Fold these 4 entries.
Entry 1:
Amino acid sequence: MSPKDVVALQVHGLSLAMQGRIAESVAPLYKASQLDQKNPELLSNLAKAQQGADLYEDAIQTYKKLDRLIPNNAQILTDMGTALAKSKFYDEAEALFNRAIEIQPDYFLAWSNRGNLLSDLRMSEDAVASYQKALEFNPRYAEGWTNYGNALFALGKYEDAKSAHEEALSIDPDFGEAWSNYGNTLLELKKGDESFNAYDKAFSIKPDIPYLMGQYFAAKINLCIWDESPEIKQLLDLVSVGRKVTLPFNLLQTNASLELQKIGAETFSKDRLPKSRKISLTRFQNLDRGKIRIGYFSSDLREHPVGILMQNLLRLHDRSRFEIYGFFLNLRTGDPIESALLEEFDHVIDLHGVSDSAAIDLIGKSSLDVAIDLNGHTSGARTALFAAEVAPIQINYLGYAGTSGTDFYDALIADRVAVPSEHQVYFSESIAYLPNSFFPVDTSIPVESFGDLPTRASQGLPNSGFVFACFNNAYKITPNIFDVWMRLLNDVAGSILWLSKPSPMAQLNLQKEAERRGVDSSRLIFATRTPGRLEHLSRLRLADLFLDTPNYNAHATAADALWAGLPVLTQIGHTFSGRVAASQITALGFNELIASSEEEYIAKALEFARNPLALESVRQRLEGSRAHSPLFDTKRYVKDLEALYIGLLNKANLH
């Protein structure tokens, strides 16, 4: 009746916003603002709606109008700074927060939102100080407490972070984001059961928190809770349309296609990476000096599969041709692997707790020729450093079996089994192929040191019966592969399944799932943790056949089993993470251990279980392969790796 009624338009917009229909509220509020361009209340409501609908550029323009109408208002400046920060205009945002604090020193939101900005820039110590000021002025500000907890988390102060999130939840027990952040912290503290409960609570309150659905799903499968809530199909459907529902790593644990994995990685990278300044590089600046500078970046240069594998590689790098830098991204642990790695690098730079800007300056002083990201999309990654293009050649390698979804890596290292050439389209990086398996096996513990075969009783195994084994993490076990394993136990009388020991809840759930499938749960034997890798490698020889998981293969675990002489049966998948075991086995020349379907996997497992001579033949050949197989020739592997680095440098130099 009156399409230009400003009050009706504003009330319409506010009504939609109050129902949570923020995106829909923008149009009527905008129309009203065009009719009454000097109404501060109307412009404020419009700006908040635009910001709530992620229309940050539009919100910034509206806040600028407000700033002209009401200059030097701390709240308007803070809100505009927040919109600028969301758009990754960090310098402008910080200037506005500082101006707001200068105008109103006790304005807690200015301090808190400034803390959010500093956290985004990984200036975590400064962020902590800013949050502390906010909470000094408003100790009942729940959002400030949970953001404070996130900053403490970034500094590795997990117990303090836990306390901060608990404070937020004591103020607002229905604060979904705080429950989600609490879950992340509990996960880092290895409290898997409690972490799942926190994610479950968060999901029940606010299921659309960015990346929560994926974290909730991952927590469930890590505890082997196999109901369908949230359904995997729903998760993958949302990924396909670019929704921020999961971290890329969680997709490796599903049947997500390479196409979906790439979309998930692109969505995450676009959302999380700042607009980074670039280092001014002189390409290949060290080649004339005769040594190429290689920088390895990782949060896992410690007692971790990546740290163990790197220790084996670093000692074999040709130091007459290469100068090796280690960039440690994690808080120091003091464990033996970390201590050894500190000695192996020619230069060590500690970047934990260092802001992105300061880290980029430090890296620039190293004048690297090749920078290698050993994290990819795993915990502790510093992808923003690579976005700054810290070296002429940047490589995604080893730590993450998937694409980064970014445009600043020159290559991803793989082989033609793990990533066939026809899969290249699903990777944002060019694939740099090693001639054999891309996966470096740790051969640093010689087989001769294994000692006598442990007794079955010492490992809790029965004295007789076929031993199927899988030492993969619990999150790699899906209901489908567990169905297959239980079918094998039913078909092979007296057989048992020897598993890596998960959390008590996961263990109980696996036992229940076995009983549901008609298998006595006592036939699942959970291995206890050994004092060291030598003892673990030695006991692997007690198993008869390692059964791999299809979506996310055994990687370092498969390599260990093969080095110990234990045959690994895998079903080759359609993704990088699902083809790594096949890559290793192909390099060994044991194609009979690779199945192309579930039925073939079952048939091969039954054949080995029922035909001791066939299995013994494979085991003997495995033993003999240690002396000549390229999979176990680490010297050859490192030479191939060095040739790959030089090839990438030379190829780029031609352009």
Entry 2:
Amino acid sequence: MDTTLQTSRRGFLKGSAGAALTIGFALPLLGGRLEAATTAVFAPNAWLRLTRDGTVTVICGSAEMGQGVLTAIPMLLAEELDADWKKVRVEQAPVDKAYNNPMFGMQATGGSTTVRAHWEPLRKAGAAAREMLVAAAATQWKVPAGECRTEAGQVIHARGRRIAYGALVPAASKLPVPAEPTLKDPKEFRILGQRTNRLDTPGKVNGTAKFGIDAHVPGMLVAVMARAPQPGAKPASVDDRQAKAVKGVRQVITIPQGVAVLADGYWAAKKGRDALVIDWDLGAARDLSSAKVSAMLAEGAANADAVAVDVGNVRDAAATSAKAVDATYEAPYLAHACMEPLNCTARVKGDSVEIWAGTQSQGPNQGILSQVASVAPAKVKVNTLLLGGGFGRRFAPDFTIGATLLSKISGKPVKLIYTREDDMAAGFYRPAAVARFEAALDDKGAPTMLKCGVGSPSIMAASGFMKIPDNGVDTFAMEGIADHPYDIANQRLAYGRQEPGPQVWFWRSVGHSQNIFFMESFIDELAAAAKADPYEYRRALLSRQPRYKGVLELAAQKAGWGSPLPAGVFRGIAVAQSFGSYVAEVAEVSVGADGTPRVHRVVAAVDCGMTVNPQTIERQIEGGIVYGLSAALYGRITLKDGRVEQGNFHDYPVLRLTEMPKVEVHILASTEKPGGIGEPGTPPIAPAVANAIFAATGKRLRSLPFDAAQLRKA
């Protein structure tokens, strides 16, 4: 937003964002008339700037990490504005309460919320501007506003007169802003729902796009840090003599997160960091191992007493069942493995702080860094650059805190860069978890009872800004299980918190990422015990869940469920709801003689409500499948003697191009409010593949990642 607009803002008119989003959300509409100095720019709200040449600039408060918000947000506003899409531009917003995510109450990006949260506010912003432009044209023509319509950046009178929006800038700028503008009927949409090329693609292709790691501040030093191996670990001793001897190294600074080497450039800083001799005091974590983690989580699952769901009578249902089925599932800690290494450039100068970073949490960073540097929050400026992958990891503030501390102590601007190994061993993992299931079936194979205990650490407790509810149930630990869709009369679903030690954090699709694997694999086990088709078994249990049933049926139809496959190839299916969207996936899988699974094809069906950009939906589902498949086949963070064993992609592999299956995405037409799309593609892929492996081999894999040794033929 330009300085003129910032200084001329008089206040905000409050508008309703709709009860479905949040109560009392303030739509940032500028009150009264704009100052005369701004008449070259029509800026009726915090999100829009229209200039006399007809250029429409939309200000986006969300972070772009590949999910497409720098195109989706402009599409929302441009639709109601009736803008000429060829003249639409986008800019990243500064930190300002005007850009708070209505679903979070703070300026932050995550939870697949950007479109869901801004569906009404951004449309209202565009609609208000459109009404003002129409009013300005009607006044100029001396005709009723009702005789005018808008299209592609023009106001058009019923008798054929036309005027471009740019020509109306001075007059429209003097009009009051409507508090409750009329929104279009979705049947009138011209931009929303259309396949639209992304506005940020050209810059990413030609190299002009700026990611966090591209930031440069004159006089800055580059820092690489030896991080504490476990939360709470401290250096018992630090020998930095060899580090200081490296050419280009300027300072060695110890902060609570570790020991940092500051140098003229990255390689000098890294060489200096590698030359540090540190004896870490791991405290109670010194003998932590993956085996101990598994044992703790299994205990939590067995003794889970924080009850999320308790309906019917599980004991009586079990006693009268025709068949009992039980199984225990496990998932490991996972790293986020973002493509761009974590980084932040910070400059602490006097009573002000300025950072340049790819961050998912601009608002929280402003508050946190004001405390780190002991300055007023208003004195913290956050420049949000592009993120080379986020997946929840860049919601955490560790890298912005580290850079700010180092700048404050050193007196210089500092760019802190994590190596891949630093990030892999830095904590902030997807929680490891164990789920213990028991079920009872009647004489027809239908489930009459479901009991489940989940043992895992708490993300809510680790986040620092959430509180575990009074019932003791971490919402993220139970999502995908506590809210499963299946019609089962008697249920007891409970959480058993265990905290082995490693820092846990939000990971793409959060609790759904492991819990849908647990739940959909176990439902498949029930189908096998009932000697029923897995698709039909699910379908029968979803009679009261039309949106689940809709995507399940569409995925099965498009995959040709029940039709012949090439020799050695088998199908598996799974369905899930997360972040307001419904996704079913069918995986076609073969298993080699060495036990290695190969995924040949994935057919996905998605119901995410009304759509903004179908092209983005397809790409996000494809990306979610890649992310989830990488975790299912390879992902694992293991511990030995209190330290993480993985360091880079040689021992934390991700899916290679040669392993990529063919992916088909089918979007179910819907008039429901939009759901999220950045994460829902991930949860169903692991169980779909596991269920296909069972169909191929008769062996049930109950832990992630899949162990080829269990499938190896003699």
Entry 3:
Amino acid sequence: MTSERPWPLRAGGIAYGGDYNPEQWPVDVQLEDVELMKEAGVGLVSVGIFSWAQLEPREGDFDFRWLDAVLDRLHAAGIGVALATATASPPPWLTRAHPEILPERADGTVLHQGSRQSYAVSSPVFRDYAVRMTRRMAERYGDHPALAVWHVDNELGCHVPHDYSDAAAEAFRRWLRNRHTTIEALNSAWGTAFWSQRYDSFEEILPPRSAPTFVNPTQQLDFARFSSDEQLAHYRALRDVLREVTPHVPTTTNFMMTTANKWVDYFSWSGDMDVVANDHYLVARDPEAHIGLAFSADLSRGVAGGAPWMLMEHSTSAVNWQPRNSAKGAGEMVRNSLAHVARGADAVMFFQWRQSTAGAEKYHSAMLPHAGRDSDVWRTTVELGGHLRSLAPVRGSRVTADTALVFDYPSWWASEMEGHPTQDLGYLDEVMRWYRALWRRGVTVDVVSPGSDLTGYRALVVPTLYTVGDEDAARVAEAARAGASVLITFFSGIVDEHDHVRPGGYPGAFRDLLGVRSEEFRPLQEGESLTLDDGTRADLWSEKTRLEGATAVRTWADGPLAGLPAVTRNDAGRGHAWYVATRPDDDGVAALVDAFLAEADVAPAVAGLPGGVEAVRRHGDDGTSFLFLINHTAHDVDVRVTGHELLRGQDVATRLTVPALEVAVLREH
């Protein structure tokens, strides 16, 4: 359930720091920055992310002197650098000279200079300039002693996940030739016999630009795949230059796995990363945002194949880009940071080091806020640095889990397209409905792709795996036959990788595994709900299902399907396969998860903890385990444990008190 990926950073413990933008500040402030970084325990900073216009103010006129001084100063202070390629935002002279590099929306709107990421990732002109800039950075700084890791571009695809420009159209056609080989194969895959869409050559194909009504769904799905792959191709082009010039320096880029970017299939990028890095920001309107954080961290670990990963960005307090930007509460910055560490992060970094006084992100919090050192945020910045020094023994240890949740980006894309039985289905909402129930039961979860080896798990949750190929469907079935309890939810297995419905009845690819057959979907209208035989209320979805080997766990108590199965269970080899053909309310999900976990013999990391207290273990190669206890409640909690508590430096013989809104980390062996 893990893969080997060496940890490339030179930090002796948990790396600590954030984005550092010295170009925004005079030299006297930069000198103060270094002294304050040492006070806070900062050991790693990201530099140069948006500095292209400062490094090359005019085409071919480079000025590296200021960056030379910054890196020399940081090295003298013992601070390592994640040095960016400086390509995340082209300078105004470039977009003025080459307006053809600007990206376009589906309706033809050109996205102009004045923000960031104002480039079409498929543009060969932009690619040439970006590669050239990357080479200059590598040749100048490849042997600098401060350099710890290359930071390629920044949050690729965050603002422009899809580009519909002419450059993108040409790149899309190349991608389609590679994927489908012949135009006949493409016509078959896209079902172009429908609506007279048959193509006679690849040259006739465009991106799915704005059209009179629904655009071909397989065209949309392939364009989503292409767009993810094209961002990866850009990463590879820059990465390859770095590996050529500086083969001794690892490379990464910062993902945004759930916060802002659903359109990059990060599982497909994993093998190209020397270390996986992720940015995560809380959703202020979510009162349980810490559960979303846990999911993002578990997903980051899944993309990393179980190896340690970097938290490249999060916030000390409020962000600036949500409708209402809430400041973090007491202890929340520390809890957030250590929750990431608990789930596998070996680096904790923030956007940004010093809070800006100008620009679009001046109200985004930072490690050193506008209020300066006499502030709770700064005091917490220093406190967190001390905590991470205490956690140095944790570095390199791994999280292990008996339970996995299958997460699939193409199913996210495809399940939310138009022309479906309901437009109210949100893929991430369905995923989180089941993840939250597992989190509340203290169960450690690996979030994995359907292409992973699933046979080592006792429990496997598969929510809304709408599009699935034969091989991935077989992996899910094999997990059940090997002894796992597998729970699959509605609108799963419906279509193949081309978004073609699997005929013969739903749930398509999983029909035999589940021992059921549904002949018709019956989505519920807004505000409508039905009752199951145990009193559970269910909304959004129902389907006309009959048993073909399975047994009914829940049946419909009312409505047009009364008496028919709503939740089923089937024997499958040494395991079992459950099917949930509706969306139960929270109590109904909780009851099903309890029964499912009991059958799978899955236990929480620590039994008997009150709600709101998180417990996760990391395990070292030497048999040492580290128990993270994160108290999100307003009450002190006593936990029966033994070992040595690292944050407070105290031995624990039988019982440990975790104060309200605080964290404890116990070395158990």
Entry 4:
Amino acid sequence: MLRPLLFLSALIGLAGAETVNGSSVVDISNCPITFYGKQYEELYVSFESQQLVVCFDDYYNVSQPAQDCILGPPVDTERTFKTLVNGSTIDTFTFSSGNDTLINDGGDISACRHSGVMYKPGTNASDPETCFSLTCNDSAVLGITQCGPLDYCQDNTICILNPICTVTGPAVIDFYGDLNTVQDRCAYTLLSGSTVSGLTVVGYFRERRRRDVSFLDSVTLQLDGEEDVHLEQGGIVKLGNTTQTINGSTVLSNGVEVSEDQTGVTAVKTIGSNTVSVFFDGNTAQILLTGPPGEDPNLGGLCADSSTSLSDERLPGDNDCEVLYNDTADSSINCTTMTEHCNLLNDTVFTSCHNHIDPTPYIDACIDTLCKYPAVDGLDCQFLDAYARHCSLQINDTVDSWRSKAGCSSPQPFCQGTICSDHEFCAETIGGEIGCFCRAIFAFPYKSNDTLGDPTVCEENSASLTLVGCLLEERGINYTTLHLNDPTCTGQMDEVDHMVTFSFNSSDPCGTEVTSNNSLLIYTNTITALNSSSDNITRQDRVDIDFSCYYTQPDVNNMTFRIKDSPVIEQFTSGTWNYTLTMKAYTDARHTEGVDSNSEVQLNQKIWVVLETDGLDDGLVALVTDSCWVTNQAGTLRYNLIKDGCAKSDDETVDVEGNGEGLSNYFSFNMFQFTRSSGDVDLHCKLHLCATLNQTCTPDCGGAPRRRRSATLKYEDEAPAFITMTWTN
């Protein structure tokens, strides 16, 4: 053990060789000193104000003291010295003199250090949650046992290699939890290196509804000397160019095991003692590496280091992918609301995950994306779901309680089996259906010119016009309802690119009108929509596209509505009860986005109408919606939505919830118009109060109406309430 006496003796010897005035630096490299576990080759000696100060890492001063020092007492006083380690007093020792002899009263400067912490000889320290163990033996030799940089401490005792990389939307969160964002539409290496020799995982990024925000579109496992495995939207798995049928779990010819469940597709490849697992659900990829624990594995790609220059990991190809766009900001996005939503990842429901996985990169990625891109196609739940799945994969902790708080449903197969063309992506239509939408760059020239397709192609005695299938889908137009003047002449959709072509010729004119002008023949036809709706209503935009060899800009009358009065509030009296009845419309299932006179509602867009009361006792009565119907302004046309308390049976868009169960209920339907009428449209509802004591107030929509148990419990004056809401186009 190294005693301060020996140290001071050495210092005295040095001092005999040179005079110390003020402050000096003494070179002791020929005889370095280990001070509490850290070796030094220089001394910073100061003798000012009659006090000796010896430091190892810098000069000592009151305003900014050095970390490792020995502070001597003023002269002519008891010789008590202090030792400072990391700026804190660790020990004191005293020298006294007698007969010209220095007597040391103790003090040992032998110790171990780790991460700025000092450990005395003969001590041990451990942290079972991180599998960290430290020993400082009697000779002050440090011994450390800990997990590797990508290892995880399992069961508080065992280190395992299982880092996870998450790629969702434009974000890449690497194995170390660092975040990077892909801004272009290129292909990038996500994982490579000698640890996974022979395998390269590549992510392909494409735009969707906006040109300036990219999303992970597909993932490819490239295997040396073997066919690539492609994981695409809709649960599609391809080996080379051949689509594979996956039933439960399948081992492909290249040794990749592929499995499918309701959440997505997982491809697993074992390489030596390491295994790479790649999950993809059409929106999010999570790459899990498992194997022997230990040193930092030799890995490359964005998952190994997302902070690397993106150009270093970009695959060579079409340079157009690197072009960046700057679309007009979406004014409908409330960034404050989106930030609050993303910060749900800090909620206590994720506490078990927080102890092991930092949610910060997921929150940052969520905010960055949702403040630029509308929260559609489940995007508002995508980042939360990715974090929860990371937690489930790494620490085997399934957290589901967050879904109800965030308004997110359980994972469902998204776009399962839906095959879109190269210029399309799978998304949710206005009516809540799944379809193929145009990618923003492809659609931009069409939308800029307000057209649905290409110019007419004219030949000698024929003409053809091609419409873009995904633009029709985006407008909620079913191409099968479109036809020429002759209703039997319909459009033909190409199975690969989903373009819809209408054509006619001299032998099959399809109702074409032929006129002449200055000896020229002009073939003219019109694409219009077949009215296949019942009850004199339609939920499809009116289509009227002139079709001739002289191209006329395709035109669609895109019908929008404004609800004149929402909410509607009425006061009613029923028996002894005076109560207020409110009818209010919303555009979302959670009833947070209210509709007012400035809101635009599209044809076939789903609307939720909430009916609720105020001033009643929910222990005594329930609100029952008997019927709701829509009429035109003249009252000559009527369309029923609810009858006898139940949704219209032949209209699948109508849904009734909570009827007769409490003091409020609601129903939903897809917006429509009357085909033979224009102007204002009125929504009427008839309701009544039902005494809940000893009887059921919920309508039986599965068969015959339920019989009341006691007619005497009915209110003496159970007068029906009528309430009306109006919308206009």
